[in-house]
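can u do me a favor
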């Protein structure tokens, strides 16, 4: 079976839609079964290629999520807890130079703020004790002064 040679249509009179459709039909009719099989093979290969690219993208996005997004979310939660003065929250140190450095910085900040918070509480307790001592001193001086005036 020989393939008929396609006839080049005359595109000079395309003013009518029917003429254009007829010309397209003339161009596509010489396709044989082998041509259909070749087109199907190419379409299958392209579909497989697109599927492989999609699987690769899904794998890449999953890796990005595991290595970057999740640690950034954890570090954000740590920073939020620190801002709320909750110093009990800990997270696993993320891998990587930049995220690991940010983790170290946030942990240092947490330790410093926790230490300052404890010192502030101790200072408030000491301040209350000193106020009581000062009141007792003032009362003692007032009584002593009163007693000295009465003795004279």
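np, heres the sequence
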């Amino acid at each position: 079976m020989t393939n008929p040679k396609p006839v080049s249509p005359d595109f000079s009179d395309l003013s009518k839609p029917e003429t254009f459709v007829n010309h397209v039909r003339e161009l596509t009719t010489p396709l044989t079964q082998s041509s259909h099989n070749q087109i199907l093979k190419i379409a299958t290969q392209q579909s497989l290629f697109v599927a492989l690219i999609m699987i690769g993208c899904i794998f890449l996005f999953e890796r990005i999520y595991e290595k970057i997004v999740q640690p950034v979310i954890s570090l954000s939660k740590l920073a939020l807890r620190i801002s709320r003065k909750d110093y009990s929250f800990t997270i696993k140190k993320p891998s990587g130079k930049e995220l690991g450095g940010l983790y170290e910085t946030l942990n240092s900040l947490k330790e410093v703020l926790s230490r300052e918070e404890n010192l502030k509480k101790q200072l408030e307790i000491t301040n209350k004790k000193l106020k009581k001592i000062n009141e007792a001193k003032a009362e003692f001086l007032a009584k002593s002064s009163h007693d000295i005036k009465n003795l004279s």
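The chain has three helices and no strands. hope that helps!!
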